[in-house]
Task: inverse folding
């Protein structure tokens, strides 16, 4: 029999697993640089907590839901925002603002397709206890830095306010604003024609909404300032904060952006790459969620990066501070000491363990490493290793100290 991972889930190994770890480490380091502290919550939550976003029984179709042996209703977490709200509700006296990050897998019972998995990683930051748009802008600035560190140079951050969107819909004469927002949120999945069709099927005049959908880009701000919808001052304050952080060039106002989660209350954001119809990160302000879970009335905002989508789009990266230690002959003791010296100076090393001939060692190393340090009896006697660049074929005979410097310079 051949056993496979459950539908919509996957194994990651080799370069993919290394890239995943690089993304997670970059997120962790940058989050902490911005003053966020880690929080770990269980993979399982009570169904009552998971349903707090307002979807009620309907959410059972979207999550991994089950009953335990005592009949308690449980589900796998579908994001980190709801567990955060539950944690804050149970710990109301912690110092505010509370700035936390959480990184790990979440689960949704979606139909698996391109860039959509049932188990996927999120890297999430949130600020609880501040109503200032500065908090929203700082979250965006943090994830912008991460995107740049990972090699993404052409991303944009779509921003809007649900208050602005609701106000524009009401002024356009749309009475079913909740239904309209839910349908508009699907525009990247089903296109404008699909949105028009679904609006019509729900008794909403498409003509009244299509003008709003077209209000995108910085030029749309002039039109918004003419309309003066509710929520516009907060949106403009947020955009000014983004200018101060030096990220305004990344920001794209989009009056049609809604975000699917019902717990968002005003500002919402979405990170996009050119030509892509899925977001690589998203979030917004959820000022009522903590109160919904029995906690104090606290403002909160945050954003989450879709790690798996970044993994699939991120190019190959070369870790030059990494080497395979190949051995020839009876040089084990020297090779171990040499390897440990490299490791002690931050060089990632793999030492030959199987006594293969040098041809097989180099064939193996060429699939995983750019640099190979070859140690034979002659090299061991000189207390050196021959560093070979597997891409260029260049070789240098170096002491451990010089080999470390050579790798760290690259």
Result:
């Amino acid at each position: 029999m051949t056993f496979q991972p459950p539908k919509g889930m996957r194994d990651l190994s080799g370069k993919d697993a290394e890239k995943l770890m690089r993304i997670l480490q970059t997120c962790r380091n940058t989050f902490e640089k911005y003053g966020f502290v880690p929080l770990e919550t269980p993979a399982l939550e009570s169904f009552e907590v998971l349903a707090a976003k307002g979807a009620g029984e309907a959410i059972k179709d979207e999550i991994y839901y089950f009953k335990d042996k005592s009949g308690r209703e449980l589900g796998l977490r579908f994001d980190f925002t709801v567990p955060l709200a539950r944690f804050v509700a149970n710990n109301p006296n912690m110092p505010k603002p509370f700035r936390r990050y959480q990184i790990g897998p979440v689960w949704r019972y979606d139909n698996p397709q391109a860039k959509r998995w049932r188990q996927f990683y999120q890297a999430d930051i949130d600020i609880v206890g501040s109503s200032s748009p500065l908090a929203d802008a700082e979250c965006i600035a943090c994830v912008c830095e991460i995107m740049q560190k990972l090699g993404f140079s052409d991303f944009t951050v779509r921003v809007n306010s649900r208050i602005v969107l609701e106000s524009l819909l009401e002024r356009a004469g749309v009475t079913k604003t909740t239904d309209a927002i839910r349908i508009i949120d699907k525009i990247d999945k089903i296109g404008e024609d699909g949105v028009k069709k679904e609006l019509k099927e729900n008794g909403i005049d498409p003509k009244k909404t299509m003008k709003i959908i077209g209000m995108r880009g910085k030029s749309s701000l002039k039109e918004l300032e003419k309309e003066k919808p509710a929520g516009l001052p907060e949106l403009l304050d947020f955009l000014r904060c983004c200018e101060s952080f030096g990220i305004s060039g990344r920001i794209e106002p989009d009056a049609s952006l809604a975000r699917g989660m019902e717990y968002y209350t005003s500002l919402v954001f979405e990170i996009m790459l050119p030509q892509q119809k899925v977001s690589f990160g998203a979030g917004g302000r959820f000022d009522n969620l903590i109160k919904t879970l029995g906690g104090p009335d606290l403002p909160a905002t945050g954003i989450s990066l879709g790690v798996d989508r970044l993994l699939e789009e991120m190019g190959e990266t070369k870790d030059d501070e990494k080497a395979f230690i190949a051995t020839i002959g009876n040089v084990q003791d020297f090779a171990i000491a040499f390897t440990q010296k490299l490791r002690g100076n931050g060089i990632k090393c793999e030492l030959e363990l199987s006594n293969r001939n040098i041809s097989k060692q180099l064939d193996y190393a060429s699939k995983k490493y750019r640099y190979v340090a070859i140690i034979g009896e002659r090299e061991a006697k000189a207390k050196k290793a021959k560093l070979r660049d597997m891409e260029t074929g260049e070789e240098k005979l170096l002491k451990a100290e010089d080999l470390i410097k050579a790798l760290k310079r690259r």
